[in-house]
Design goal:
globular, mainly alpha, 2 domains, Endonuclease Iii, domain 2, Endonuclease III, domain 1, 67% helix
Amino acid sequence: MSVSESKGELLERIRWLKNSDVAEVVKQRIKEFKSFNEKSSKEWFSEMCFCILTANSSAELGMKIQDKYGLLFFESQYDTLKNILKAEGHRFYNKRAEFICSARRYGNIKEIISRFRSGKEAREWLVGHIKGLGYKEASHFLRNVGFDDVAILDRHIMRILEEHNLIGEIRTLTKRRYLEIERILEKIAKDVGLTLAELDLYLWYIKTGQILK
């Protein structure tokens, strides 16, 4: 199958899902993300910590920990936080606890991020200031608090692009390559009339049968 045929197949699948029951779930999830505009900086900080926890781990584990201890991210001592993460089964409990404690200097994260005109500008700040947030994790956080112009290049999204011959195998995801792949997703989003935030949820559903955050 040619690249154009493979891409066409993917676009057709997305368009079909847009007219299915999945669309209502996507719409509701996007509404939840946008509602962060009304939430406190502590809740934004908790969401940022969730994204720190998902790095080299899973969204499911991050959600489990956040649901149980979310607001404690803001106030627990390093040892307490480390022990919580260890007890919950996080492989990198030492480093993740360190990153969360380090991020507290930006406890007013909502105010900081709200100053930026776009998700892409906010992402550069996050990657430069928050330990534990690379481009993927920073994009994840920004999408979850309402930005819709950044792509989350996790393993599921990368795999589906590989399977449809839109990218080759990626061994090291540099900033340059990340932005190149993001532009591919922007073109797909434009073709099917979606934002990058919406497209991510549809692609995740195609690959996993789930719509998480």
